[in-house]
Amino acid sequence: MLTFYSNNRGLEPADLEKRKNLLAKYKYSVIIEGSHLEFDNLERWIKQNISVDPLEEINFGKTDYNYGFAEYFVKEEAQEAHLKFAVEHIYTTWGNGAVFKTNGSNMPDIPMLLTIRKQLFFLITKMHKNDL
Of 63, 69, 100, 115, which one has the fewest beta carbons inside 10 Å? Predict the structure, then answer.
């Protein structure tokens, strides 16, 4: 994110002010690069699995068509750890039924293999059992 914005343009002043205010309220945040559909899916996952209400975020603007950076804010370190895990392991089912995650702007997407799907189901199930 720093590379993109320092080489192309700075962050919007309104985004910087909002970020400053949110960091005063929330101790932890995670910055994510991805497609807007991936952000939508991640937000649904957060609401279902981390119980963050309200969900505070900043979308930093597009870096490509429906692609860019977003930052999500949480109050607890455990919530941040869950969010970091989810970000690396959430894949999106696209309109054609293919399951992928993006790999950066103008880079080939990463397909989800069946073995990965089984491993993630096991890890997420185990993670939730440990939280109970």
Answer: 115
**DSSP conformational letter for 116:** H
pLDDT for residue 105: 72
What is the span of the domain harbouring residue 28? Answer: 2-131
**What's the confidence (pLDDT) of residue 30?**
92
Per the CB < 8 A criterion, the answer to whether 60 and 11 are in contact is: yes
What digits encode the pLDDT tens for the residues 9-29?
567 888 889 999 999 999 999
Domain count, the chain: 1
Is 32 exposed, middle or buried, given 0-12, 13-18 or 19+ CB atoms closer than 10 A?
buried
Separation between Cα atoms, residue 38 and residue 66, nearest integer Å: 10
- Total-model pTM: 0.72
Task: Tell me how far apart the alpha carbons of residues 17 and 98 are, in angstroms, rounded to a whole number.
Answer: 39
The whole-angstrom separation of Cα 57 and Cα 52 is 11
| Partner residues linked to 56 by β-bridges | 73
